[in-house]
Amino acid sequence: MKTIMYSKLRKLLLFVCIIAGAAELSAQKNVIRPKEIWPDKSGNHIQAHGGGIIKAGKKYYWYGEERRQGLDPAYRYVSCYSSKDLVNWEFKGDVLKMSDPDSIGKTWVLERPKVYYNAGTKKYVMYMHLDGPKGGKSGYAYARVGVAISDKATGPFRYIRSFRPLGFESRDIGQFIDDDGTAYLIFEDRPNGFHIARLSADYLDVEKDMCLLKAPIEGGAIVHYKGLYYVLGSALTGWAPNPNKYATAENLEGPWSEFRDVAPPESRTYGSQSTMLLKVAGKKDTTVIFMGDVWKPSTQWDSRYLWMPVEIGDGKLWLPEPKPWTINVKTGERAMIIPNGLK
């Protein structure tokens, strides 16, 4: 009798271990691991650098610079990934493949693509930083934005034109969509500062300069949280990371507070550069995610991502030390991973 009971107990314990192991494996697949290789559903490292995210229906779409090895050097590529949970991403292809659009020159660049959905025209509108030596000796003398459109989130996108927004130079760009749906372009103008500009009704042009911050800031990102705007950016140090800083204001027009560190300055934002602040408003909580790039200039295909939930509120914006974490996009709740579970 004891032998039978012992056998049944062993089987029960084995079953519990299998279930626990499966649960642990499932949980591990839903963990965001800052600065590590981030495989898509096919097992390939995600290539969406300098990117931006929008939500259409129940899916998030992540667009960025395609930097995988073996690309045709005559073209520049924008990739697209989709996800329902912000963790597990499916590669939807390169939604834009473009040769030199304006005869800029052999070393032309396409950087920081950002996509907006226009409910009025039912078009997806992509902005990108276009640059190169055209008209000057510098490798970044062209300083314009390019615009492309598509009928679908997954492309293909068709290039329309390039221009200097409101007549100003434009290099690093960012995007912001306010809670009321109004769309803005953020762009760095080396001679003057950092612009926050409203897009036209069809999103195909830049209509109004809401604010010009006299600050040498690029990699711009904005979030509206509990009645306050937070603007974030990095210093002008090229590929090298630096202490990213933020300021706050009650209105986009300002006045803006002084810029303050978003992380310990000696960490140089943990080796990353800002690209977006993503707000996930759920049924129970709201999480704001710092999206940053960990650039590797000589092996760009191996550049990583630093995504972390920030501490935000009452004028404070703080990026904690990167650690594995999870998010529930339905409830808006996040949790840090500790050795024995979640915290």
What's this, in brief?
The chain is mainly β. The chain has two helices and 24 strands.
List descriptors.
single chain, 343 residues, mainly beta, Tachylectin-2, Chain A, four-stranded antiparallel beta sheet, 2 helices
What does this entry look like structurally?
This protein has 343 residues and is mainly β. It has one domain: 5 Propeller (Tachylectin-2, Chain A). Helix content is 9%, strand content 46%. The chain has helices spanning 2-29, 268-271, and strands at residues 49-56, 59-65, 75-83, 90-99, 109-118, 123-131, 144-150, 158-163, 173-177, 183-189, 193-199, 206-213, 218-225, 228-234, 245-249, 260-261, 273-281, 286-294, 304-309, 311-313, 316-318, 325-328, 333-338, 341-342. A hairpin with a 7-residue loop joins strand 7 and strand 8 (158-163). The two termini are 44 Å apart.
The portion of residues forming beta strands comes to: over 45%
- Structural domains: how many: 1
Structural class: mainly beta
CATH class, named Mainly Beta
What CATH architecture would you give?
5 Propeller
Beginning-to-end CA distance, first to last residue = 44 Å
Q: Main sheet, how many strands, which sense, barrel?
A: 4 strands, antiparallel
Low-confidence regions: 11-28
Query: Helical proportion?
Result: under 10%
- Output the helix-strand order: HEEEEEEEEEEEEEEEEHEEEEEEEE
Annotated CATH homologous superfamily: Glycosyl hydrolase domain, family 43
Mean pLDDT figure: 92
How large is the radius of gyration?
22 Å
- What's the tally of helices? 2
Strand order of the largest sheet: 1-2-3-4
Number of beta-strand segments: 24
CATH topology: Tachylectin-2, Chain A
Globular, elongated, flat, extended or rod-shaped: what is the shape?
A: globular
